[in-house]
């Protein structure tokens, strides 16, 4: 089971998007350059946490573009908009994917169920875009 959450960075604090609506600082923010993070957890495996933050809207758009490319080529790679982080998704066997995260000189690989991963990311993006376009 995937748990995917979007956060907005307000000052030095990350606030889940569903908790930010009433925040007075958020109301004054320029929505075109909001920093934030996307956390991804698969059961007990933490794939992305709050240390991987960037411009949240661009980050989501890059992830969706990566998924579109993956559907065509069974491989895709992206860089975070303004951080030295890359994500790579590769088709594996038995309906699995390998999701690789590279940050500085550290690399991590996660073996994940393809359909569930892509569907969970798409649903989380829909939640984010619904919030963001309110």
What does this entry look like structurally?
This protein has 134 residues and is of the alpha+beta class. It has one domain (2-132). 34% of the residues lie in helices and 42% in strands. It contains 4 helices and 9 strands; from the N terminus they run E-E-H-H-E-E-E-H-E-E-E-E-H. It has helices at residues 17-20, 24-28, 56-73, 114-132; strands at residues 2-10, 13-16, 35-42, 45-48, 53-55, 75-79, 85-91, 96-103, 106-113. The strands form 2 sheets. Strands 1, 2, 3, 4 and 5 form a 5-stranded antiparallel beta sheet that branches. A hairpin with a 5-residue loop joins strand 6 and strand 7 (85-91). Helix 3 packs antiparallel against helix 4 (114-132). The longest helix has 19 residues, at 114-132.
Topology at a glance:
Elements: E1 2-10, E2 13-16, H1 17-20, H2 24-28, E3 35-42, E4 45-48, E5 53-55, H3 56-73, E6 75-79, E7 85-91, E8 96-103, E9 106-113, H4 114-132
Antiparallel strand pairs: 1-2, 1-3, 3-4, 3-5, 6-7, 7-8, 8-9
**H/E element order:** EEHHEEEHEEEEH
Radius of gyration: 15 Å
Largest sheet: 5 strands, antiparallel
Percentage of residues assigned to helices: 25-40%
Number of helices: 4
Low-confidence stretches: none
Q: Based on helices, strands and strand pairing, what is the structural class?
A: alpha+beta
